[in-house]
Amino acid sequence: MIVISIGFASLWIYVVTHSAALGAALPREALRQSIPGFTGGLLAYVVATLIALFTALAALIIFGLLAVYYLFEHLPSPAEAGPDAVPGASGSGA
């Protein structure tokens, strides 16, 4: 789970930092604010794995809570971003 979480966090950070080139319909700031929600699981997986060395039940509960957390959508929809959130319309050139 830790390796998968590292891979997903790396992929998400790449997508956020290259959002303009990938044609993202969301504002850059909204994407940047989503980084902790998508990469925070890595820390939780590490903690749960360390806790599993002492009590498997507690680790199982943490893993279950993480699974429930990731069941739900955490990104704002492009419709909520407003009409100014057209890809490439920011004019920042980054």
Describe what this molecule looks like in 3D.
This protein is mainly alpha-helical and 94 residues long. The chain has one domain. Helix content is 66%, strand content 0%. It contains six helices and no strands. Helix 1 (2-17) packs antiparallel against helix 4 and helix 4 (35-52) runs antiparallel to helix 5. The radius of gyration is 17 Å and the shape is elongated. The N and C termini lie far apart (34 Å).
* Share in helix: 55-70%
Specify Rg, calculated over alpha carbons.
Answer: 17 Å
Shape: elongated
- The end-to-end span amounts to 34 Å
Order of helices and strands: HHHHHH
Uncertain regions: pLDDT < 50 for 5+ in a row? 89-94
Tell me what portion of residues adopts beta-strand conformation.
under 5%
Q: What is the overall pLDDT average?
A: 77
Q: Count of DSSP E strands?
A: 0
What structural category do the secondary elements indicate? Answer: mainly alpha
The main pleated sheet reads as: none
Q: What kind of assembly state do the chains in view correspond to? A: single chain
Number of helices: 6
The total number of structural domains is 1
